[in-house]
TrEMBL record, chains A, B:
GO terms for molecular function: DNA binding; DNA-binding transcription factor activity. Keywords: DNA-binding, Transcription, Transcription regulation. Residues 9-141 form the HTH marR-type domain. SUPFAM superfamilies: Winged helix' DNA-binding domain. This is MarR family transcriptional regulator. It comes from Bradyrhizobium macuxiense. InterPro entries: HTH_MarR-typ, Tscrpt_reg_MarR-type_CS, WH-like_DNA-bd_sf, WH_DNA-bd_sf.
Length: 144, 144
DNA sequence: CAAGATAGTACGAAGTTCGTACTAATCAAG
DNA sequence: CTTGATTAGTACGAACTTCGTACTATCTTG
């Protein structure tokens, strides 16, 4: 827990700008098939991870207006990627779940991500690979 | 350059998903002031890095239609963040440059990025910080 | 210099986001 | 149990974004 130097921060920033770009390309590639925009893709993944969640849950998580999320869900339902079912306990709510097609689309989405990660690791030798993963996890945990 | 294991790839993917999310928040925070959408922000940064570039250069780099870029540039010009000047050699082209206000906005944009990177580094001890930067640069260079 | 390629913009159609207004269901007292 | 406030969600329309088509102006090449 030491304050990094200005120079170090800038080096990492430059490297990460390139990573971010790489991930965007990966996202775009995964979306190409289903023609999902960024919001719809993120919505689909969230619903896949949180079956039974409601419109508001996703809206809050992705930081968009409730009505925007309602539209996004409309599009995903029309493409048969998710389903709106009545919620058991609260009849105002809907319970969202990914359809079989939707789960497949999520897999493709994540596979593209994973492919980008694999490409990164491939540039390193085995010891470095282990070290990068260790450091990444340490950071991810610290951010809470 | 050794093939990483499936397990390693997944660990890194999970960690990077969290990073990506963090960067999106940073981007959103930087955009909040100027109310720039993602495309406009990226366009502004590119023009800042490539003064004198043309509409088509940015469009190709960001992978959008020429007309889309023309609109984005319209918006940035209207906000006085960039300028369209006639190109010296080729009078069909425009030469784009960031205005003083624009350069300031870019600084804010990048500062938010840098802040996210600094936060990451802070979770590590000095030896680990140096190692993370070294590995990141190695990967960034290998990707070409 | 004529034909074709290139850089860019105008315009309009299709789609996205979000605020306002509304319905339906739940909760909290009284 | 009813009434008033809250909560989950959708319908609708305005403002904005993206992009294809059509067009102008300017190189480039044979």
């Amino acid at each position: 827990m030491t304050e990094p130097t200005q120079e170090q921060v800038e080096q990492l920033t430059r490297a990460f700008e390139r990573f971010t770009r790489k991930f965007k390309v990966a996202e775009a590639a995964a979306a190409a098939d289903n023609a999902l925009n960024a919001l719809d893709a993120q919505t689909l993944v969230f619903v896949g991870d949180n079956p039974g969640c409601g419109t508001g849950d996703v809206a809050r998580y992705l930081n968009v207006a409730m009505t925007t999320m309602s539209s996004a869900i409309d599009r995903l339902v029309r493409k048969d990627l998710i389903e709106r079912r009545p919620h058991e306990d609260d009849r105002r709510s809907v319970a969202l779940t990914a359809t079989k097609t939707g789960r497949q689309a999520i897999e493709d989405q994540i596979a593209a991500y994973r492919e980008a990660c694999r490409a990164m690791l491939r540039s390193l030798d085995p010891r470095e690979q282990r070290e990068l993963i260790r450091l990444s996890e340490k950071i991810a945990e610290a951010q809470t």
